[in-house]
Fold this protein.
Amino acid sequence: MSLCSSVTTGTRKLRLMGKEEVVKDNATLASNLRPTNQCRTLLPMRLLQIFLMFVVLALGISVVSMHMIKYLKIQTLAPTTLISKCDERSTLESFIKSPSSVWHSMNDSELLWRASMEPRRLQYPFKRVPKISFMFLTKGPLPLAPLWEKFFKGHEEFYSIYVHTLPNYTSDFPSSSVFYRRQIPSQPVAWGEMSMCEAERRLLANALLDFSNEYFVLLSEACIPLRGFDFIYNYVSRSRYSFMGSVDEDGPYGRGRYSYAMGPEVQLSQWRKGSQWFEINRNLALDIVEDTVYYRKFKEFCRPPCYVDEHYFPTMLSIFYPHSLAKRTLTWTDWSRGGAHPATFGKSDITESFLKKLPQAKSCLYNDQPSQVCYLFARKFAPSALEPLLKLAPKVLGF
Ligand SMILES: *[C@@H]1O[C@H](CO)[C@@H](O)[C@H](O)[C@H]1NC(C)=O
Ligand SMILES: *[C@@H]1O[C@H](CO)[C@@H](O)[C@H](O)[C@H]1NC(C)=O
């Protein structure tokens, strides 16, 4: 309506300027009427315009929202971080390129199934650099992360990292960190129970999705590397054996944990014990991921005080591949203080001589020959150990 009145005044002014002085009442009336007439013809035009604008706008919104629905549907299947043009699955690269984030929306059964798919052809139609997959099993934070960052620096082509935390934990590593976006979808873990092995399987399965991962090392937030990256890479990749502890131990903590209900798949003579902290190759990792038979047996019949993470993989792999295991772990742990948990080392424990003696803390064989270096990793280290470790790393650890 304000539009109409401004038109009216405009017409009036025009008339005054034209000096039509014979302004009779009629004329005034007419001039008053004319703008109103004009207004009457203008109004429907405007309404029509506004109406058309609304129609165009509505069309626009509906087209946009249709696209949004499509987009959101894709989003619920996979997080944005996974969406890339490579996901068209039309190029070889889409299969072999490692994604920038390891997050996905598969549940455990979907993941294990997917991870058990393996190429059977021996030759790769691309340059495959075998990588070591470092799998961190932690409640949440990685207090020794700065030491690991230093360790990994400059070796990007030869490693990958996977982190399993409590499901409600969100890590906040900056994009410059090697741990950035390496957290996998996780489940709660109870110490000494099957959920621990399930978490390890989850880590292995996630790592298996990357075809270039050839070696798989399980670590905790309290682990440190005892040598530089190149040394560890060569030691692991040139070994004829996988470093899974596996001993036939008498007594209550060994054979004493066996249950005859585990037969016929697992006999007493096949029962093995080994450290939870392992290094295995791709073949063994696939066996762990695809297993359903032994999994059921151990889940049902190996419960505390049978600590399943010390028996399930060592026993099963010893049955499948007795000659592929080094039957020792690469991770040094101090059990000398007794009890259910190993010793933890803090700031005051970290000296040059302490760190130097760890790799050769016991005698061992490497590719069937006596070796000076038996351990490549060690645990457990408290957050307070970080500072002296960082200081001594260049001199003693070699990075
Ligand atoms: C995963 O999802 C599938 C399909 O919804 C379901 O059949 C299966 O039981 C789920 N597995 C787990 C471990 O939740
Ligand atoms: C996460 O869950 C665990 C138990 O599963 C609980 O102890 C802890 O307090 C939770 N943390 C947060 C940040 O909610």
About this structure: The pocket of 2-acetamido-2-deoxy-beta-D-glucopyranose (ligand 2) is lined by residues 166, 168, 188 (CB under 6 Å).
